[in-house]
UniProtKB/TrEMBL annotation:
This is DUF2059 domain-containing protein. Keywords: Membrane, Transmembrane, Transmembrane helix. Pfam families: DUF2059. Residues 94-147 form the DUF2059 domain. It comes from Metapseudomonas resinovorans. The chain crosses the membrane at residues 7-26.
């Protein structure tokens, strides 16, 4: 099961990807008309549409698959044990329900409709189609950086223990 820090890092990365994509394609997104969005006056439906249209569900599903792979690697557990571990954790459906409630709390029906239209544009559709792969690559990169940092910290700690009595060196940069 993912630790709280891993979930926070993944959520920050997910939000960063979404914002970067929107800002970098702003001119392309608003230059075309939307094509796949159907309007409704039901705020629950609009919030759920946003979860689907924005690619949020796909991102959550990728994170869930990565958690499964990490559990397999970390515990060398059977598929049945992994299923049990995942079943005891936070489910994607729970995260989606929470997201819908939070969206309704902070956005109006009109804003959700506009966001859904925006996310239905051809440029955003392409970005969203790539979002799961982008999220996976980002999380893999974060894990690689964290592992490198862990190795560096171990080396620093061992070096510090060996040289503790005679060292006045500040923290090395490499």
């Amino acid at each position: 099961m993912a630790t709280k820090n891993e979930v926070v890092i993944a959520a920050i990365g997910f939000a960063g990807i979404l914002v970067t994509g929107i800002l970098s394609n702003y001119d392309k997104i608003f230059a075309t008309e939307s094509s796949e969005y159907e309007s409704s006056n039901d705020i629950n439906l609009q919030a759920r549409n946003f979860v689907e249209i924005s690619g949020m569900r796909a991102g959550l599903e990728v994170m869930e698959k990565q958690r499964i792979e990490k559990l397999k690697w970390k515990y060398n557990a059977s598929p049945e044990t992994i299923d049990c571990m995942m079943g005891a954790g936070i489910q994607t459906s729970q995260l989606i329900d929470l997201t819908v409630d939070v969206l309704k709390k902070h956005l109006t029906l009109k804003e959700l409709k506009e966001l859904n239209e925006f996310h239905s544009s051809p440029s955003m559709r392409h970005y969203i189609d790539q979002q799961a792969a982008i999220s996976k690559d980002l999380i893999d990169g974060i894990e690689t950086l964290a592992e490198k940092n862990h190795i560096r910290n171990l080396a620093l700690a061992l070096n510090n223990e060996k040289n503790h009595a005679t060292s006045t060196q500040s923290c090395p940069t490499k």
